[in-house]
Design brief:
The chain is mainly α. It has 12 helices and 7 strands. About 6% of the residues have low confidence.
Length: 339
């Protein structure tokens, strides 16, 4: 029965059958993390110390111990082995020495606060007494820490008292990788504390916001200098000129036919005659003249249909070739006839 309870408890600190870190606890300090693990383990272990097989609690202790080291390693972005070396200490309890993970918070004029994990015997104990009060004092969760910091009513930047507000950021990595060479004091403090919240006096917060606005305004003024304005205006003019050139290239100019081109297309030939075919050639010349006169009278030169004109020229050329052929045939017949 105890073995099943131990396995169920260990599942809270495992993933894939192996001990893993508790990501939700990394926002707390190392003191709070160690104290919370100790409180959870001590409460469970003391309840089952009266069982005859209480020695099986060693497996749960090892699981929680590795989970604790990996949680601290995840918080400080390092390895679990380094966390074991950093927090590993020896603690004496009831005349016996135990290896524990321990941290201290020093205070002026008072004894330091101590938090540790382990430090008591795991085995059958007939007269075991359940101790409900945690020896390390209050175990902080994130809510209690925020409440206590607000109740403290002290600015964590300047130390002023009264009118405290909590300043929040979304991600802690945004503080380190924000591209700013000169980081403000509140940013440096949050990086050092490794926290996403900061208790700040309202007046101090307004001053920081005002400084940030001045930086932004200065950057905007640099972007809108006269040189930058002239450059923007030149770019707009060049863009408009490029658009006008593109429109001009797409437009097709109207074709104009001069009188010389018209005469060339008509194929007008002067001072040409074929022996034996003067009558036929004279008729063709008259046809050319009539067609040219008709075109000049009835059609405007700017509205001449190029295709229709080509058809007329082709027809006249064909008739001219036909007349030449007939004149040549008549000449050949005359030569063959006996005189």
């Amino acid at each position: 029965m105890v073995g099943e309870k131990i396995k169920d408890k260990a599942k809270q600190y495992k993933k894939g059958g192996k001990p893993t870190h508790r990501k939700e606890r990394t926002i707390n300090s190392d003191f709070d993390i160690i104290a919370q693990y100790q409180s959870e383990f001590r409460g469970f272990a003391q309840y089952y110390l009266i069982a005859y097989n209480a020695h099986q609690l060693h497996s749960l202790k090892r699981t929680m111990e590795v989970s604790l080291a990996r949680t601290l390693a995840n918080k400080f972005k390092t390895t679990a082995n380094k966390m074991f070396k950093k927090y590993k200490m020896t603690r004496e309890t009831d005349g016996q020495s135990y290896k524990v993970l321990q941290t201290e918070v020093k205070r002026e004029g008072k004894k330091p606060l101590v938090a540790f994990f382990g430090g008591f015997k795991l085995g059958y104990k007939k007269d075991a007494i359940i101790v409900d009060a945690p020896p390390t004092g209050k175990v902080f969760s994130i809510k209690s820490q925020l409440i206590d910091r607000l109740l403290n009513d002290t600015c964590e930047l300047c130390g002023a008292k009264g009118n405290i507000e909590m300043h929040h950021i979304k991600k802690q990595k945004d503080l380190e990788n924000n591209g700013r060479t000169d980081k403000p004091e509140w940013m440096k403090r949050m990086i050092a504390m490794r926290r996403k919240t900061l208790a700040v006096a309202a007046d101090q917060l307004e001053a920081e916001v005002a400084v940030a606005e001045e930086v932004v305004d200065h950057q905007i003024d640099q972007d809108l200098t006269p040189a930058a304005s002239d450059r923007i205006q030149e770019e707009e003019i060049e863009t408009q000129m490029a658009e006008l050139e593109a429109i001009a290239e797409n437009e097709e100019p109207e074709e104009e036919i001069s009188e010389e081109e018209l005469n060339l297309l008509l194929g007008k030939q002067e001072d040409q005659s074929i022996p034996g075919g003067d009558a036929e050639m004279s008729q063709i010349d008259r046809d050319f003249e009539e067609i040219e006169k008709m075109i000049n009278e009835e059609l405007d030169e700017d509205l001449i249909d190029q295709k229709a004109l080509n058809d007329v020229v082709d027809m006249l050329i064909e008739e001219e070739e036909k007349a030449k052929k007939e004149a040549k045939d008549e000449k050949n017949i005359d030569e063959l006839l006996p005189m």
